[in-house]
Amino acid sequence: MAVKRILQPALVALICTAASSGAMAQSRADGLWRGSGGAALSASSGNTTSSSLLLNADAARETASDKISLGGTINYAKSRIDGVDQTTANKWAGRGEYDYNLSPRTFVFGKLGLEADKVIDLSLRSSLAGGMGYKLVNTETMTFDLFGGLGYTTDRYSVAQTIGSKTDTRFSRASVYLGEASTHQLTPTVSLKQRLDLYPGVSGDKAVLATFNAGLSVAMSTTMSLTVGLTDSYNSKPPLGTKSNDLGLFTGINVKFGAK
Question: Domains in the chain: how many in total?
């Protein structure tokens, strides 16, 4: 099951990192933009030479009636084995969401996600979704939202791919959309955030798409923090020759920007 395949590695990683302990910006309903951006870099040499880079940024503006959230990531990695270079990751993703409050607890939303992955020849995946959400917990130290609705996803590949019995460069599907997200201020300097988005397809190739993201950060100053991040994406019907699951674990530095 998609959720199980995503949550099992996510929980293992979060349990391990929580023992060492993050700070993340909690949004405030004052109409000001706040966000953070960061970078994670790793390199190794020897029998195998490898390097990887992850860049990410998130920003949000919240008022008493609505909220705008924006974010994006870039991930690139390569390795050299026996003198042969190979790109192991080359992808980017961007997202935007608008929430409008119907009451202190309920809201409606619309969201758009864009991503590409050159390693699997995915030129562009666009995911549009809308529906309603419920703020199960909304306090200074913790938020927990549940949301659901309908979505539509289109995948465009640079070369023809075979998925199931179909070979094409374009695959589309309507889907149900389900998700949850939470933030946790564990201590004044340690915080955790996570989000799960699930798209069970109901038309087209009926693929089930899911993404899980989590971040644990420890504040080193009022603007800078050390972070551990986990990303996982799942596609129940990937192109022939590629895997369903794509998991990444990163450590790096994040810097806050915008209003204090």
Answer: 1
In angstroms, rounded to a whole number, what is the distance separating the alpha carbons of residues 160 and 156?
A: 9
Grouping H, G, I as helix, E, B as strand and the rest as coil, residue 2 is helix
- C-alpha 159/C-alpha 36 separation (Å) is 36
CA angle 146, 100, 137 (to 5 degrees): 35
Cβ neighbors of 43 (< 8 A, separation 6 or more) are: 50, 51, 52
DSSP, res 29: S
Residues contacting 6, CB < 8 A, separation 6+ = 196, 210, 211, 212, 232, 234, 245
The structure's pTM equals 0.82
Q: List, for residues 155-179, the tens digit of each pLDDT value.
A: 999 999 988 788 999 999 999 999 9
Sign of CA dihedral 4, 211, 252, 242: positive
Task: Indicate which CATH number applies to the domain containing 139.
Answer: 2.40.160.40
Range of the domain at 56: 2-258
The mean per-residue pLDDT over the stretch 92-104 comes to: 96
* Token digits of residue 201: 């397809």
Amino acid letter, 106: T
